[in-house]
Write a sequence for this structure.
């Protein structure tokens, strides 16, 4: 697995001229936020960065928001971004850490370990006084990328349903406490409120310093996971969220703690909360349907 899950702005600055370093702006906004990630990228991005479209890099035959594509389709996207199997990919987003962990996890899912997240993202880059560019990026030469697949890093609906009985995995939900307990509305209004029975809650934002936008130190990360009920080194964690994006932040946090085995429930609440046949826990402790 990746030896460098997190890199600093200074580290990246020193490698921008390295042709094997590929920087991806993976900014994504929730559907209830009136912002355009592609337009923001054109207005401001790290020099040489390319835009990774989380809404576009998915299984387009599936109506759910962010189901992973086939290895072949992912390889085409990666190659089109100028990425080869010997590239070091660095992902960032405009929030600090919100969506950048999604491509980090996807590259690992498809067998590419040389991938990192920029600590603090674009806010930390700018706070360090480092330059930004605007406009469309220069055309890139297509890379040579062959994808494999690591099924142990992903869970599907059938897996999570079976886990209700087997309890082999610990489901850890990255949504806010209000969304987890059903007292806050979902950004996708068609979804029910609540959470997967037996799951635990660790909002992804708890792993990030709100002032610097950087990931908290190792001791704070350990404390957050333990307070959420995770037995570090023992539990097999499956991260979930709204649509499989911020769940990857929890996987990144566990990777920083030395656990690269965390999986992601790809359908997440967009799938579980939209079905009439999946049980939920709501704030009153009642299960549905």
């Amino acid at each position: 697995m990746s030896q460098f899950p997190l890199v600093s702005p200074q580290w990246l600055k020193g490698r921008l001229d390295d042709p094997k370093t590929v920087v991806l702006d993976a900014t994504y906004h929730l559907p209830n936020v009136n912002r355009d990630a592609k337009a923001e990228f054109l207005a401001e991005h790290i020099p040489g960065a390319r835009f990774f479209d989380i809404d576009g890099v998915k299984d387009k035959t599936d109506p759910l928001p962010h189901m992973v594509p086939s290895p072949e389709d992912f390889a085409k996207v990666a190659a089109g971004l100028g990425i080869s199997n010997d590239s070091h990919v660095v992902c960032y987003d405009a929030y600090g850490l919100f969506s950048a962990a999604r491509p980090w996890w996807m590259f690992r899912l498809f067998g590419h370990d040389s991938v990192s997240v920029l600590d603090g993202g674009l806010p930390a880059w700018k706070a360090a006084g480092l330059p930004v560019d605007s406009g469309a990026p220069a055309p890139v030469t297509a890379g040579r990328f062959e994808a494999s697949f690591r099924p142990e890093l992903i869970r599907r609906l059938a897996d999570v349903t079976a886990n209700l009985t087997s309890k082999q995995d610990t489901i850890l939900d990255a949504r806010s406490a209000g969304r987890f307990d059903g007292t806050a509305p979902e950004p996708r209004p068609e979804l029910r409120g609540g959470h997967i029975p037996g799951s635990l809650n660790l909002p992804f934002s708890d792993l990030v310093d709100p002032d610097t936008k950087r990931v908290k130190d190792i001791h704070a990360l350990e404390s957050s996971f333990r307070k959420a009920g995770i037995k570090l080194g023992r539990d097999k964690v499956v991260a979930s969220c709204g649509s499989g994006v911020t769940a990857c932040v929890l996987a990144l946090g566990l990777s920083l703690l030395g656990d690269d085995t965390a999986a992601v429930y790809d359908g997440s609440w967009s799938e579980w909360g939209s079905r009439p046949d999946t049980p939920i826990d709501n704030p009153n402790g009642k299960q549905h349907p």
